[in-house]
């Protein structure tokens, strides 16, 4: 009986030591308000994508060369957290352009500047009655910012359209640049949570 007590006491002591070390060395991740603010951020093409890679768009020629057409994608974002998201605390960043146009240069090289106009269903400046607005960051990106308080748990959906495209101005057999959207939420205590699509 005494021997069994010693073995049991030893086993408990070893378990206690492992638990102490596990708590001491366990990595900790700091999130705003002690909780994750962004549960999910996804992007999907509404326009038919012919290569199935969600980060870029491959189009088949369905238009006459002089026709202007648009393509559309959608951002789906799920927020969470313990507190409501104050105005200006949610920032959704997207590239200004993802397509390139043909060059008129004799060597046929691709122009580096983008082509097409990214449009969002929100105004470009805060206005009465608007919940969101977009801003030009000046570095080739747009950012959508909340103008009103958003509930702690919220599902957001933004359809975005790229307008002003013409088949005869796009580079043949070149998919778009990667389309990556970044969502950033800042809590009242200044802690940030960020997620890319």
Helix segment count? 1
Quick one: biggest sheet?
5 strands, antiparallel
What is the 3D form? globular
Widest sheet, order of strands = 7-8-3-10-11
Structure commentary:
This protein is mainly beta and 197 residues long. It has one domain: Immunoglobulin-like (Sandwich). The protein contains 1 helix and 11 strands, in the order αβββββββββββ. It has a 5-stranded antiparallel sheet, with no helix packed on it. The longest helix has 24 residues, at 2-25. The protein is globular and about 85 Å long. It starts with a helix and ends with a strand. Residues 12-33 have low confidence and may be disordered.
Q: What secondary-structure arrangement, pairings included, does this model have?
A:
Elements lengths: L1 H24 L12 E8 L23 E11 L10 E6 L3 E2 L13 E2 L1 E3 L12 E5 L4 E6 L7 E12 L16 E5 L5 E5 L1
Antiparallel strand pairs: 1-2, 2-9, 3-8, 3-10, 4-5, 6-9, 7-8, 10-11
Fill in the keyword field for this structure.
197 residues, mainly beta, 11 strands, 12% helix, 33% strand
